[in-house]
Amino acid sequence: MKIGVGFRKEIASWIEANSHDIDCLEITAEHFYSNGEATLQRLASRFPLFVHGLGLSLGTPGPLDEWRLEAFDRVVSIAQPEWVSEHIAFTRAGRIDLGHLNPIPPTRESVRILADHAREVSERCKRPILLENITSHIRLDGELSETEFLNEVCERAGCGLLLDVTNLYINSRNHRFDPISWLEALEPSLITQLHIVGYSKLGDRYADSHSAAIQSDLLELAKEVVRRAPVSAVILERDEDFPSSEGLQEELEKLKRLRANTCVA
Amino acid sequence: MSPDFITNLARLLSDGRLRDAFGSAPNETAKSLGVREEDIQAFLKLDPRELEVQALVLLKKRFEKVCQVVPRTIQGMNESGSAWRRFQSHGRVRPLNSEIPAWRSAHGFCAELKETCPECVCPLEWHRLEWLRTGGRCSIRRIKQVMFHGKRRNVIHLLARGLSGASIEWVIYLGW
To answer: In terms of CA atoms, which chain B residue is nearest residue A113?
Structure first.
């Protein structure tokens, strides 16, 4: 199981200095749409990369945005990742761009839309695609439960899952369900990669600010995942309020200790 | 053709007034949006409180972009803890659309502040926003009372657009 971090320019120096300790990097495709080709080429020559998208809006009915798809493919062709990933979500609909990820209803129509879009991205980039679960403060009604929905989407699309353990934890707390039961309803062989970062609290609600150290209860949930599923990579997805070098190193150590619990497939 | 569920959800999340209407009269709102028959049940099950929390997350993302455009204005207001609170009130009744550049959102916010709290708006940043809005080639202005190292100074503020379209900015602080 590879251990890596999401590449952010704020920690670029730390990544360079600790490259021996980092198995892989995940880059955000949109960060390289306008510039940064030289940086991307250098990273690709030093690390195995994964390419993670934010804005393809796979859950939106209708055709994918061709400009964004072409830009995504261009980044992939430079990064040469083992796989790419995007979200089980929408960011745009009609003439409205919400600028962030939002949930899609767990219906068979959504399965079809999402799976067809995932296949299209995978075929365009000539790489497998993983789909990631998101945090949502809205519960949407549909024909399927969330886990049934994920299982069906992946089966139809022929893809795997990027399980964001933090998002699962946050949703389980905000919507009061048992994350272990949720895990047990998911097809374990689908879970290929994990995202993890500490959660935040705003009053009595949990939030994914991507700015906190990994808490012990979150780590326990991650252990449950790696015991059940043949996870190939875990990425620390910190976006802001970066700790010191020692703090970042400690976060990596937590993930290495997690590796000891890996499921033998 | 009736809009799909995702489009109607996007409308609700982007518009505080529409969410208020949904909260008080969900059936009428569904009808006014042209919600499809197959989507009605799921639409009416949407929880207005959950919609509000999700919309707040989106608005916060927008606010973070505005903070990057007008950092002095926001910082000045943060000293009294009011920047995010004011932006929430402002943003809630203006449909959110990230296709609108962040500087336009910042301009709208600052224009409202100039009515309600004119001393909150950094005059340098307002000059820049107005220049962006008018699309002029260059603009020079003498601006009074700009904060500089804890003291207020008069400045000459020069904005210009190069041949490539990139903008250039100079601030010359007058006196000591």
So the answer is: B6
